[in-house]
Structure formats: structure tokens, C-alpha cells
Amino acid sequence: MQGRFKRDGSAAAEPEPRGANDRGPSAEGQAGEGSADRPQATSKAKAKANKAKLPSGPGSRIALRNWRISTRLVSLLALPVVAATTLGGLRINDALTNVDQLDHMKLLTDMTGKATQLANALQEERDRSAGPKTDGNPGDDAVVASQEKTNQAIDAFNGATRGVKPTDPTMVGVQTTLVDITRQLNKIKQVRQDSFDPKQSDYIARSVNNYDGLINALLSLSQDMAQATSNADMITSTRALATFSAAKEYASIQRAVISAALANKKGPYLSPNDQQYGREAYDAENEAIRRFTAIRGADSQQLLQAINGGNADITTAKTYTDRVFTKDNGIKNEPKSYKDWYDQASVKLGEMSKIEQTLLSQMEQKALELRDDAQQDAIINGVLIILVLGISLVGAFVVARSMVRSLRRLQDTAQRVAQDRLPELVKQLSETDPQDVDTSVESVGVHSLDEIGKVAAAFDDVHREAVRLAAEQALLRGNVNAMFTNLSRRSQGLIQRQLSLISELESREADPDQLSSLFKLDHLATRMRRNGENLLVLAGEEPGRRWTRPVPLVDVLRAAASEVEQYERIELSGVPPTEVAGRVVNDLVHLLAELLENATSFSSPQTKVKVTGHALPDGRVLVEIHDTGIGLSQEDLASINERLASPPTVDVSVSRRMGLFVVGRLSLRHGIRIQLRPSDSGGTTALVMLPVDVAQGGKKPMPGAVPPAGNGAPGGNAGVAGSAPRRQVPPAAGQQRP
């Protein structure tokens, strides 16, 4: 079944020429009364009465309510915009900039702390591995434990770096450093595997350098922190931390170099290159401590007290380091266990780690203090701006209130007219004589001289014009409906006489070929009568005759099939033994006939249109009409189902799809639900759901009883609702009517 409904009666479906519009004098008179230029239609007394009902005039031109909307908006927005731009632009921008910088600083501080912990872990792993690996014991527990600690520090550092946004322009330097760190961390396994292998030349300096590149990259993050702030104290703190961390790395290098040299299986040995490397680290440490002292100033002495002679072990380790790196064969002249040296050197590195943590803590505390100050400034600035805006809004409220009242009244009136007044008026005009309906228009009540008052006046004009047009349309629809009804009644009478004459000829004809032609002529007349009934439906008329008794559903289906051109393709099966209420029989036959006509017209002539019925437990009955056409798209099905559920107003488009409109009108008249959906076997299925009050038409007739023609169920040759009589075609015709 196609979504297109057959154009029943092509000549009747086409719109008539404008010149042939048969409008009566009453229609012209009504149009004349509703026209725009009708100043003579109202008397002076009515004009005075309407004028007396109107509110007071617009008042003085300088009154606030008569200002132009542009003037009001400028006055409304000027003061708060100027105040917010002047004060907010100068203060809030600075506060937000500081807060944003300190947010970056907090992120970098946390990340620097994790980087420092990772650097410490790498230093400890390198220094602890130097002795055992050189001694040929890479699986030492201390080595494994230090590597595991490094792995945990790597995970913690990676977690801290996830907060860095690649698109942040202030983090460009940090991003570059992180890329370098990530690249080197990916090689940590190879670095561990190749470190401190005595079979390689200069293995000590090479192994230490492999770790040193990664450690220096981690320590350089503290230098990148200076990019995130313009505060001098924070910049000084970051420089001091970076300098001291570098000194700690140089001290760690010395510990690793001497540990590896003492662990040599052939005896303590330090090659000239390794000795030179260690000496450079020793000198670099002293230089870094000097620069740190210069950066920190007076409080540096207290921080460095422990490593500047305040601890005997540190002093002894420093003296030993100086001899090893400055004297030839110094490491052989004063041999000791690499474990003893590691423990002694670790005392100094432990104190340096404490100083490093102190610097980090001071930097974090400073960042928090600066952030709190920035937030406090932002709050103070915000309070000041709120006060200024509050004062501005109080003044703006006075200006805006005059606008809001008029606009709200106009809005409420427009909504009431659109949602209640006009729909109710149109409904009254469509149901009663337009002359009996009150078509007066209530004014919005806004009569100011500004744009709002002009819009209100224009809306009143639109309202009056809409009411006038609605009255004219209602009168025109009434005339058209009356014309439809008159033409349909005349056609029905002529067609009924034609059917009677054809029936008389059929009863006296014995020739099978002639009888078959008479059957076709009878069928065409029946379809013409259905087209006439469509006009009655378009006009909103009820059927003239109704059945007084319930009619079996199977007879209703047969009567509907008899009105279809290709009735021989319709196949009934599984129809439940239910009865249809007599008041619905005529309309239901008409409705089903339209659906069956559509199914047969838009499916292959070689296929059958199957009609089945199902009685539901709640008393309803579902009738299904299946065809095997080409089917419909989902969009077409949705559009057709919407039209069936809510038939549109009668216009030219309805005449082109008269069947669709008639089915929708008839289904709404009796509460019948109709829906089209794709068929499982291809094509389309029409579902007709008969409600309980329609499907349960009363007591079933006695078995074998045939109601008399005119007021009983269709049977024998009686037909249904004036349908073409159901006759058996002689065998010579080769077909049988349903």
C-alpha cells in the first residue's frame, strides 16, 4: 500500500477557477462589513463610548514611559558598563592574572617536588649500584631495592605531569623539558643494564653521565618555574633551589665515582679520566655552593651549617674526597671498603636532601601565601564592583520597570489572544452562524508614544484583521460546505436511481457477457456514490441513514470490498464473529473501502490484499489490511500517520488526497485508531483498531437469521450502508464478487 491515497474523482478534486466562485450576497455583505476601510460602519455614539473606555492618554513627551527604547537601553546600560569597565578592567584583570600565575606556580611546585624525589631516587640508585655492579654483584638487595624505589618515583612524577596543558603558552619551556625527561626515562632499563660494567673503558664516568643527563633534566624544572610568576621572591627561591640541587648532584657524582673505584676487584683504581671527571664534579659543587650563598644571602649560613664543618663525618668525607681527586694514586694510598665510603658520603647527601626539602617547603609556603593574597585582592575588588553594580542596578531598575510593565502587558495579551481568544473564536465561527458570534476586539491597553506603544497599536490592528478574516473564512467555509452538501445530495439521489435501474436490468438479463458489463457498470456507480459521500465528509455532515441493529464484522468487510474496483483481489480470513454497532456501520464501510482501494491501487495486480481480524481480550477488535506494494519510507509513514491522527483543514491539498482526509475524519468521528506501518513481507499494513463501543455492537443475531433489507445486517443481496449489492457473477463471467 502506498502512502499516496488515490485521487477519487479527478474532476471533482481539482480546484475551481476563481471566476466560478459562487459567493452569495450574504458572503459579499459580510466581507464588506469586515473590510479595513469601513469608517461609516460605526456610529458616533459607539466611537464616543469606546473612547470613554480607553485608558488615559500617553501623557507628556518627556515622561519616562515615552522615551525611545534606544534611549532607555543606553541609560540602562551606560552606568553599569562604564563602572564595570573602569574598575573591573583595572583591578580584576590584575587579580585574575596573579591568581592564574599562582595556579601555574602551584602546579609547577608540586611537579618540582615529584621531580626532586625522582632525582634523589636516581642518585641513590646510581650511587648504590656503583659498588656492587663494579664488584660483579648486580643482584644485590640494596641495588634491587633502590631500583624499585626509583620505579615508584617515576610513577608519581608521571602522575604529577598530567596536569600540564599542552596549549598553555606559559608552559612551553616546561613542555620541552618534560619531553626530554620522558625520552630519557624510556631508556632507564638500558642505562641500568650498561651501568658500571668494568669491561668498558672509562665505565665510571660513562655510567655516571648516563644518569646525570636525566637527573639534570629533572632538576631543570625548578628553573622553568620562574616562567610562571613575576614575583621577585619566587624567582629568587626557584634559582636558589636549582643551584643547590645542582650542588647536591655534583656531591652524588663524587660518591658514585669513588664507590665504583673502591669496588674494583683488582684493587682500588681510578683512571686519569675518571679522576679528572671526579675533580670537576668536586669543583662544580663548591662553585654551586658559592652561588647558592650569594643568592640566598644571610640565611644561607644557617642552612649550610651542617655541611660546612658542623658534622665530623661530613668533614672526614670531604677531606678524603679532596685527596682522592687531587693526588696521584690517592685512592690507593688510603684504601677503604666501598660500603664504608658510601655510608660516610651518604651523611652529607642526607643533610643536603634536608636542605633541599626545606627550600621546597619554603617555596610552597610562599606560593600559598601569594595565592591567598591574590585571592583576597580579588575578593575585595569583587565586593567593590558588586557595590558599584548594585548602585547602578538600582538606578537602572527604575528605568527598566517602565519598559517591563508595558512589554509584559503586551506579552500577556498577545499570548491570551493567540492561545485562547482566537482559537475559541475560530471554533465558535466554525460551529455557529458568524453573525451570532461576538467579534469585538479588546485593546492591549498600552498607549504610550514609544516603540512599545506603537507595537501594541499594530497588534490591535492585526488582532482586528485576524478576527475579520476568521469571520470571512468561516462564512466562506459554511458556503462551501453547503455547496458540497447540496451537490452530494443531488448526486446521491441520481446515483441511487441509476443503481436501481441497473439492478432492474441485471435481474432481466440472461446473457453472461451483458450481465458482466452490467456488474461493472453497477460497481462504477457504487464508487461514484462513495465519492459523493466523500463530499459529505468534507462538509462535516453525518450520514442520512443508520443501521438500527448491530452488523457482523465480516459483512461490513464484504460490503467495503464490494466498493473497491479490484474487489476480486481482496481476501478475507480469520475475521472474528463480532458485531459492529449499527450507528457506525455506514462510516466504517466507507473507511475500510478507502483503505482497501488504496491497497489494491498501489500494489501489483497479480497479488492479493489480505484482510484479517483479531479480537483482543479487552473487547477491542484489530483489523489488518496487508498488501505487497513497494512500501513506504519512514518519513512518508510518519507524515501519513500524523495526517490520519489529526486531519488538516479542508483546502486544495486535501482535495488532492481526499481518501486520506476522509479516513482521518471518519476515524476521529468514532474514536477508531488507524496506523500504517511496514509489512513484514514487504509492502504496507494498515491497522484499524475498533474501540469497545464500536466492536461490541449488541447481542448477536440468531444463527441463520438474515435481517431485512433497510434495517438489518447486510446479507444476501442487501449490501451495507447503500453499498453496491453483493451478487454472484455467473460462471461464464469467470469471476465472483465478494
TrEMBL record:
It is an enzyme of class 2 (transferase). Residues 1-21 have a biased composition (Basic and acidic residues). It comes from Streptosporangium nondiastaticum. The lineage of its organism: Bacteria, Bacillati, Actinomycetota, Actinomycetes, Streptosporangiales. Keywords: ATP-binding, Kinase, Membrane, Nucleotide-binding, Phosphoprotein, Transferase, Transmembrane, Transmembrane helix, Two-component regulatory system. It catalyses: ATP + protein L-histidine = ADP + protein N-phospho-L-histidine. Its EC number is 2.7.13.3. One of its GO terms (molecular function) is protein histidine kinase activity. It comes from the Bacteria. Residues 1-61, 118-143, 698-738 are annotated as: Disordered. The keyword Phosphoprotein applies. It is found in: Membrane. Residues 701-711 have a biased composition (Low complexity). Pfam families: HAMP, HATPase_c, NIT. One of its GO terms (cellular component) is membrane. This is histidine kinase. Residues 113-370 form the NIT domain. GO terms for biological process: phosphorelay signal transduction system. Residues 588-694 form the Histidine kinase domain.
